[in-house]
């Protein structure tokens, strides 16, 4: 097999201009109901002195028809490094019109440290470009780069596969909770008896890099339905690690035990950036009933393991309960994402 280094670098087949203008969302409106078929040929290479990961996209063969009514395909190839689906995590080739056998000979480039690259998956997908934005998915290849031999820059032919819906994990958090039912001061009256919830954020593991860079992370917490500034607390920033130790306890008071059936602790993890913090994932600890004080709310959506931890806290008054929970992508209320 011919090696990528003696094909691509000198050829100038693709410049950065061929991949700019491609920074749109991963959620294409994929309305095409297309049976996946065909192959794609590409090579991958890491150029140490440039700190650059390169995908040399050669061609596709025997693609499905992207638009069956018009009997045409206008295919292009798109690459992501997962789990980083942020806008800078995507590269695209040019679009080839009216062909199921497109030839590209283009290089797509990612600036990324090799140690970070080895924690990623490369997702290469083929799409039919529709004038009205209804792009059709034509197939994909997924490579686990943790097992990839980067000394091998040969061009390989891959069979295109249908999409797998398995979500990429975005790391996990070790968190402990306890409820102290009677912490009110002064004259004890049963009506005013309130307690406090303590949330001990211990650490996170396997947080995804952003744009190929190991992150500076911090954790934010709020107790819904209260989205006021008073409800929002956060940890310090822990720099340059995918496995930050926070060891930070947040205390919320004024709770009666019956309030805790209606409340939900939203804990989110962020990459700290001077201009704009990047959201990485989070947890929602509550009963997951979909309702709060009788009203339907989207945020009362705890998973089974999240709800179990909340339930254990209520059953273990005054004692710490702990779990390691997978972070997930939450749809947040605008007021909690500031």
TrEMBL record:
It is found in: Cell membrane. Gene3D superfamilies: C2 domain (2.60.40.150). Keywords: Cell membrane, Exocytosis, Membrane, Repeat. The keyword Plastid does not apply. InterPro entries: C2_dom, C2_domain_sf, SYTL1-5_C2B. GO terms for biological process: exocytosis. Residues 36-158, 177-300 form the C2 domain. GO terms for molecular function: neurexin family protein binding. The keyword Endoplasmic reticulum does not apply. Its main location: membrane. It holds the Pfam family C2. One of its GO terms (cellular component) is exocytic vesicle. This is Synaptotagmin-like protein 2. It comes from Neogobius melanostomus (round goby).
């Amino acid at each position: 097999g011919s090696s990528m280094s003696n094909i691509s670098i000198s050829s100038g087949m693709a410049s950065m201009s061929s991949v700019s203008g491609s920074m749109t969302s991963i959620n294409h409106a994929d309305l095409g109901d297309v049976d996946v078929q065909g192959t794609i040929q590409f090579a991958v290479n890491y150029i140490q002195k440039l700190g650059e990961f390169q995908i040399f996209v050669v061609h596709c063969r025997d693609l499905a028809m992207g638009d069956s009514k018009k009997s045409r395909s206008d295919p292009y190839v798109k690459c992501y490094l997962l789990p980083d689906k942020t806008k800078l995590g995507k590269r695209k080739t040019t679009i080839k019109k009216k062909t199921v056998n497109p030839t590209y000979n283009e290089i797509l480039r990612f600036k990324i440290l090799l140690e970070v690259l080895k924690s990623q998956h490369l997702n290469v997908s083929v799409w039919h470009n529709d004038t009205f934005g209804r792009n059709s998915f034509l197939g994909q290849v997924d490579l686990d780069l943790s097992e990839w031999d980067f000394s091998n820059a040969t061009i390989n032919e891959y069979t295109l596969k249908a999409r797998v819906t398995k979500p990429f994990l975005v790391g996990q958090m070790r968190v402990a909770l306890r409820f102290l039912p009677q912490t009110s001061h002064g004259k004890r009256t049963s009506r005013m008896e309130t307690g406090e919830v303590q949330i001990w954020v211990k650490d996170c593991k396997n947080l995804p890099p952003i744009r190929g860079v190991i992150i500076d992370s911090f954790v934010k917490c709020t107790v819904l339905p209260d989205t006021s500034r008073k409800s929002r607390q956060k940890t310090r920033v822990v720099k340059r690690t995918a496995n930050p130790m926070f060891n930070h306890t947040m205390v919320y008071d004024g709770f009666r035990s019956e309030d805790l059936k209606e409340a939900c602790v939203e804990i989110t993890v962020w990459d700290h950036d001077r201009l704009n913090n990047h959201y990485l994932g989070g947890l929602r600890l509550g009963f997951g009933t979909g309702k709060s004080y009788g009203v339907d709310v989207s945020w009362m959506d705890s998973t089974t393991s999240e709800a179990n931890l909340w339930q254990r806290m209520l059953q273990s008054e005054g004692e710490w309960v702990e779990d390691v929970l997978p972070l997930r992508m939450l749809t947040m209320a605008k007021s909690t994402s500031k």
